[in-house]
Amino acid sequence: MLFDYKFHGSTSVESNAQSTQMSFAPDVSREPTYFVGTLAKSIAFREAISALNSVVVSDLRFKPKDKTAYKGWAAQQELAWLAQFTAHKPEVEALIHTIREELSTIGKTREAVLGPYYKARKHYFDYLYQKEKDFWFVLDPVISVHPDELFFECFSQDESTYGKLGCNYEVFKNIQEFECGTTNIDYSASLYNEFQKIRHYKETQFTVEPAGFNVQTTNEEAYTEVKIDLPDSWVRGFLQVSSAMTLPARSFDLHPMDVHNICYLLRRQKEKTGPRSIRFILRPGQPVVLQVDPWNYRLTCHRSVYQGNEADEIRLWGRRRLLILERLIPLTRKFTVHMLGSGMPSFFIADLGHMNFTLGLSGWTANDWSRAGNFDLMAPRTQVDNYTSELVFKALRETWQESAQSLSKRLNIEKKLVEGALAAYTQAGRVIFDLDKKVYRLRELSREPLPMEKLRFDNPREASANELVNNRRVTVKAEALADGNTELTGTVKEQNQTFRPFLFIDADERMTQATCTCPFYIQNKLYKGPCEHILALRIAHNKKHWLSQWLLN
């Protein structure tokens, strides 16, 4: 997906013995978004922004060894071995010896000719890696300025890890000016080394440069236009993270020393066989217990007591991604963990006082946010008319951040309609759910509306579900439970087969439990999102409920 950026100058960092000046160049083609202030929490900000950089460069995908050279050598040797095996006469052996000497001479000549080239190529790539990392890493330059905080967002190279750093205004002092909004900034890998120079005894000026937004009719050469072809998976990942944050999850707190023990164990041990998971054993009123496979080490977190009402055991794969949190441990008051289930996404929120760091992990490393998980299908699906949706969005734009309950009360609109509208905007990349403060925030991911058809956000399974409902192959029975929860059961007929989905919806219209008898669910559970039969059951219920409400009115 091609994005057009226009920067006024470039991001720069100037440092001397007394002060450091960080100036970020925003995308001036978007609505004016800028910020000018001086850091008051220098060391905490340095460590937090460094942890965010660790997310950007993280790539834990399996990388097989390059065996090209070995296979080439083996192919040549195979002929020599075959000739040696079939040689029975002295003249053949003499010929083989002569040919080997010729091949050896040719090999030495080839090495002498191509050796300088290979050496120069190695030096070139070493230089790129050390000096110009932008050629190796695609950094995600997304920054948002809100009335209460400034936050950065990024994705890892393998797109399985999401990072968000939020800084409220107590992190800064002498805030001179700011304009709320979201923008892309000219952010280079060399900035990481400059961040390491931040010291508490040096004043650090932090600027998202406002000068580029001034109306200018001359000196157009000062502007740099950049076309960046971001992969569709990068955009899908942002949308899926936002949807997953709104889903119900098991939540508990971990003491920083408990996270330190996890990181310490992972640094000391190297697994050679599976399973490579951590089991979070949760018992109400008891300390959280962590079992690290395959060694069956059990870590009892005596400082972290599970306050939930139901016992559970949740497994987390891709555990080495937790090492990103290492730099934050000395500064963190507590880690709040939100886990959707085994093999499902999890979020670790570090409370840094006036800052918060959110680490979002997909079910496992190879199961990145964009390809396998369709958590938008599990979000609230309440039907909301366009007028109500626009009314909710305009109200959120006035405050920039607000909870669904507050919006419902202020607009005098039913809460589930507000949540349905916000869910739709979340899935369109225009709103994000702040898991730390439990509010929705305005965050326009791009200047122009995202091409949802290209992103295939309307999942193929959802299209199949609508077709099943339209062809009247779905029967649904709803049972209202306590606390506003709803249990759905029914049948779905497809290709001479009858499947029996089950669905549990909470009072916030979120899918919390679901099962089905189809092969897709039996193989994948909810790791890849619900199957078309579960979705068809929900769509049929929504239509039936909407029709009954229409008849009553």
Overview of this structure, please?
With 553 residues, the chain is α+β, with helices and mostly antiparallel strands. Among the domains are: 68-134; 231-366, DNA Polymerase III, subunit A, domain 2 (DNA Polymerase III, Chain A, domain 2); 380-454, Arc Repressor Mutant, subunit A; 459-552, Roll (Nuclear Transport Factor 2, Chain: A), CATH 3.10.450. Helices cover 34% and strands 29% of the residues. The longest helix is centred in the first third of the chain and has 42 residues, at 90-131. The protein starts with a strand and ends with a helix. Residues 134-139 and 212-225 have low confidence and may be disordered.
The global form is: globular
Structural class: alpha+beta
Q: Number of helical runs?
A: 13
- Low-pLDDT segments, ≥5 res: 134-139, 212-225
Per DSSP E runs of 2 or more residues, the count of β-strands stands at 27
Note the gap between the termini. 45 Å
Helix fraction? 25-40%
Per CATH, the class of the domain at 231-366 reads Alpha Beta
Named at the architecture level, the CATH assignment of the domain at 231-366 is Roll
Biggest pleated sheet? 13 strands, mixed
Give the secondary structure arrangement, pairings included:
Elements: E1 2-8, E2 12-15, E3 19-26, E4 34-39, H1 42-57, H2 68-86, H3 90-131, E5 142-145, E6 149-155, E7 161-168, E8 172-179, E9 181-186, H4 191-195, E10 203-208, E11 223-229, H5 232-245, E12 250-254, H6 256-268, E13 277-282, E14 287-292, E15 297-305, E16 312-317, E17 334-339, E18 346-351, E19 355-361, H7 386-399, E20 401-402, H8 404-411, H9 415-427, E21 431-434, E22 439-442, H10 452-455, H11 460-470, E23 474-480, E24 486-494, E25 497-499, E26 502-505, E27 511-515, H12 519-524, H13 532-552
Parallel strand pairs: 3-10
Antiparallel strand pairs: 1-11, 2-3, 3-9, 4-8, 4-10, 5-6, 5-9, 6-7, 7-19, 12-17, 13-14, 13-16, 14-15, 17-18, 18-19, 20-22, 21-22, 23-24, 24-25, 24-26, 26-27
Helix pairs in contact: 7-9, 8-9, 11-13
